[in-house]
C-alpha cells in the first residue's frame, strides 16, 4: 500500500507547510491515527496499514523540514526589519527651511528580500510541476530566504519651525494608522491588516540655504534624529488547497481502495512592535522653482520584536469505499504548529534619496531608501503644504 505523495495535493501540502515553517524557531506535527472496527478478518491489517501510511506522511513532513532551524534566516526578523524600514512615512526630505510649519500626509511601504533566489525558483518549480517526486532538491548551504514586508498605509506629520527655542531647529510630530476592516470591499474577507505609529523627530539645519538667483536653491545640510514606535498586525484564515484536492484522497488497503475527504484549516498571525531612532544627514537642491532633489545617508537604530504563529489541521470528515461491516470509530487527523520571535537588526545603515515637486506652498515628495546590510527597500509618496 502507498499514499500518493507524488500527486498534486501532496506537493501543495509540502510546499505550503515548507513556506509556513520559515520562522525556523518551532515546528511540530501531531497526528491522530485512524481506527476501524468490523467483523472481517482483515480489520487488524487494515488498521496497521492505514496507521503506517499516516505515520509515513508525518515522518516525511518532519524530515523535509528538519534542517530549517539551523539553515534558514528568520522570517520574523525580516518582518521586524521591514517595520523599521517603513518608518519615514509622510516624509519631509529636503524641505527644511520653511518659516513656520509644514503639514504632510502619505504612504510608505518597505520590503526585504534575499539576494539569492534559489529557494524561490525551487518552490515555483514544485508548484508548477504536477508530476513526479514531491521532494525538494535544495542546496541547503545556499538558502537565503529572510523575506519580509510592511506598509504604513496612512501617515501624517506636522513639522514646526522652533527657532524660538534654538535657531534652525525643526521638530516633527508623526502619526500613522490603518485598519483593513475600514475597506468593506476587501477581496480577502479573512485577511486583517492593522498598523499604528507615533513619533517625534528633530532636525537641525547645520548649514543654511544658499539661493543662486532663484534658479537654484541649495537647502544646506540638515541633521536629524527622533524616536518612533510602530506596530503592525497581520492575520488571516484561509484554506491552503482548492476543495477538489481534498476530495476522494485515495489509499490502497488490504480490503481494497478507500477514499478519504479532509476538512482543512489554516491560521497565520504576525505581530510586530519596533522602536526606531533615526540618525540622518540630508541635503537637497531646488531647480527652476519647482523640482526638488534630495540625497542623504544615515542609520536607523532599532529595538523590538516580531512574533509569528501559525496553526494548520487536516481532519478526515468522510470515508468511502469501506465494506458494509466496517466502520471508522476514530477519525485520523494531522495538525502542525509553528512560530517564532525575533528582533530587528540593531544598526540599519541606509542611503536616502527623494524626488519632489513644489508649487508655491504645495509639496510632493517621493522618498526612496536602500538599507545596505539586509537588502531592504522603502518607497513612498507624500503630499503636503509648507508655510
What would you note in describing this structure?
This protein has one domain. By secondary structure, the chain is an alpha+beta fold. The chain starts with 7 loop residues before the first helix and ends with a strand. Helix content is 16%, strand content 53%. The chain has a ten-stranded antiparallel barrel. The N terminus is likely disordered.
Q: What is the helix fraction of residues, given as a range?
A: 10-25%
Q: What structural class do the secondary elements suggest?
A: alpha+beta
- Morphology: rod-shaped
| SS field, number of helical segments | 5
First-to-last CA distance:
78 Å
**What is the count of distinct domains?**
1
Q: What low-confidence regions span 5 or more consecutive residues with pLDDT below 50?
A: 1-25, 129-144
The strand count comes to 16
**Percent of residues in β-strands:** over 45%
What would you report as the Rg, rounded to the nearest angstrom?
28 Å
Mean of the pLDDT scores? 79
Largest sheet: 10 strands, antiparallel, barrel
Q: In what order do the strands lie side by side in the largest sheet?
A: 3-4-5-6-8-10-11-14-15-16
The secondary-structure element order is: HEEHHHEHEEEEEEEEEEEEE
